[in-house]
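ok, trying the design again with the full structure, not the truncated one.
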């Protein structure tokens, strides 16, 4: 089975399915400047050189450091590059992550992202909802829908949401993407992945490699050895096959890892390997 390299969601929004998540470019604890600034800038330039057109970021990272690095490395931006950012939280001076989604807070977050990225309009803004917050997002999403009407945002997305919240938001304005925690082992959103495919909405997997808890599995290692790829490449290749509207934004602070991750799109997984990989989550959850 071959997987398509790009996903066209609307006439003016085509994203490479293998994207790049920029969170790892901040310093330790997603705070402050990167340990290796030159490498961080090199990673961003390599993202574009490798044909990636989907760059995921946020003012949460640093805060603002990562958006400023993106601007320094890539502005003026290539015509086909789409930058996806998120709002709804604000970092505290103690490095905490705090919900920040009143009308005034959302408006100022959008303006700050525009300023830090050096843009007149943001390609995609995701409303990031707090963990376990399954309350109505109508008020918050309406604010972003208004900013879209004003031309400050081109497209809207959601992050960390459930199916009902997606339905509610779709009743307010078009939703182009849902960005949730999903990978080979963390599959609580299986139904939502399929729903997004049915609706023509992109499902962007965050933590595709396990994030702060790297994916580890003997089965994954065995399959990687068989297909002559790395375990990380197999985990990414499995995600690309999982759904036609699945987008990936693996994060890395290293050019070598970036190249390895992008090459995962070339990895062919035989059907029997896919069947075994499909079972990893069930095995992980039934382990004592
Ligand atoms: N919407 C949300 O709430 C949310 C939450 C979290 C993240 N995100 C987005 O999702 C993106 C992805 O998440 P993430 O970066 O935390 O997690 P991830 O992509 O699952 O994993 C990143 C980790 O894997 C390592 N890594 C990357 N490529 C590797 C490779 N080929 N071999 C070995 N190790 C490798 C990285 O270390 P090295 O730097 O050493 O490569 C880093 O420690 C973020 O960058 C961010 O844009 C969104």
């Amino acid at each position: 089975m071959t997987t398509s390299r790009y996903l066209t969601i609307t006439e003016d929004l085509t994203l490479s399915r293998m994207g790049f998540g920029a969170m790892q470019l901040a310093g330790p604890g997603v705070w402050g400047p990167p340990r290796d600034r030159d490498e961080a800038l090199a990673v961003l330039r390599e993202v574009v050189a490798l044909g990636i057109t989907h760059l995921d970021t946020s003012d949460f990272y640093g805060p603002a450091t990562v958006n400023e690095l993106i601007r320094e490395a890539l502005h003026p931006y290539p015509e086909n590059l789409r930058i996806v950012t998120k709002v709804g939280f604000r970092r505290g001076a103690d490095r905490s992550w705090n919900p920040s989604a009143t009308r005034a807070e959302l408006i100022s977050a959008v303006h700050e992202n525009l300023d830090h990225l050096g843009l007149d309009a943001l390609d995609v803004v995701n409303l990031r909802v707090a963990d376990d917050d399954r309350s109505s997002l109508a008020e918050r999403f309406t604010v972003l829908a208004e900013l879209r009407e004003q031309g400050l945002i081109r497209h809207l997305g959601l992050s960390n949401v459930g199916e009902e919240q997606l339905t509610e938001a779709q009743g307010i304005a078009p939703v182009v993407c849902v960005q949730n925690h999903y990978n080979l082992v963390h599959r609580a959103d299986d139904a939502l992945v399929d729903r997004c495919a049915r609706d023509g909405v992109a499902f962007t997997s965050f933590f595709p490699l396990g994030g702060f808890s790297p994916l580890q599995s003997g089965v994954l290692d065995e399959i990687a050895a068989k297909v002559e790829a790395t375990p990380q490449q197999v985990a990414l290749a499995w995600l690309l096959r999982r759904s036609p509207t699945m987008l990936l934004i693996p994060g890395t602070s290293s050019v070598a890892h970036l190249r390895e991750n992008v090459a995962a799109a070339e990895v062919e997984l035989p059907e029997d390997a896919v069947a075994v990989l499909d079972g990893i989550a069930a095995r992980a959850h039934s382990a004592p």
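Keeping the full-length input from now on. The first strand starts at residue 6 and ends at 10.
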